Amino acid sequence: MKSKIECRWLENMAFEAEVNDHTIVMDADELNGGNNLGPRPKTLTLVSLAGCTGMDVIAILKKMKVEPEEFHITVEGDLTEDHPRYYEKIIVTYHFKGKDLAADKIQKAIQLSQDRYCGVSAMLRNGTVVEHEFTIEE
Amino acid sequence: MKSKIECRWLENMAFEAEVNDHTIVMDADELNGGNNLGPRPKTLTLVSLAGCTGMDVIAILKKMKVEPEEFHITVEGDLTEDHPRYYEKIIVTYHFKGKDLAADKIQKAIQLSQDRYCGVSAMLRNGTVVEHEFTIEE
Hints:
2 copies of one chain form a homodimer. With 138 residues, chain A is of the alpha+beta class. Chain A has helices at residues 41-63, 103-117, 119-126, and strands at 2-11, 14-19, 22-26, 70-79, 87-97, 129-137. Chain A has a 3-stranded antiparallel sheet, with no helix packed on it. A two-stranded antiparallel ribbon of chain A has the order 4-5. In chain A, helix 1 crosses helix 2. Chain A is elongated, with a radius of gyration of 18 Å. Chains A and B meet through strand 1, strand 2, strand 3, helix 1 and strand 4 of A and strand 1, strand 2, strand 3, helix 1 and strand 4 of B.
């Protein structure tokens, strides 16, 4: 199966992507020629990771009849000093709130996501093939 | 330098992330327990990649005095059949429109982004470390 997105340059450093019938604007901050019209694209990778593993975990916990009152995830990435600047280490922290939540089931749900289901985690750990091409039209 | 995002569970499969003072909602589609309130998280990785390399390319071209009238990027990912399902191959296509655009400069700008500046491309190619932990509060 293939996924495809389109991302259009707006002006200066701002881009607008069409993805699953939604629009996401990305932009640089003022120090880097942008106007902060949207988040930085690199940080979006962390959002992508949080959403992917978060959906796994909440779906697995539902099957286990574990229902947290609140659930949020923080994702922290350490950027390399040199170019290309990327996250050389990423820490995902899952925060649950609720009465009598079973820690063993929560741990199991996270492990299943990290080891078996979360495609973004797997891709970030293992790497993938990125190819490129271009077209020019008058 | 560190980047940090927070991503909060809303309901069912919907999550809301706070990133660079912007809010991004992600959701599953109806077939997977969601309501399509936002894009799928995995597809956001492709958006992140497009924005990261797009900003490089447009900034480099500006320094080279190459100004396209229009510029958009398509990113296509091939998903693995088995879990964890991730993009085993990603193709980034840069589309330029404009009068007398110098193909050699455009190629150079893309190459500089892919080889030297685009952190998302580098991270996806090389892989990174992903660790996890969790907290439970009553």
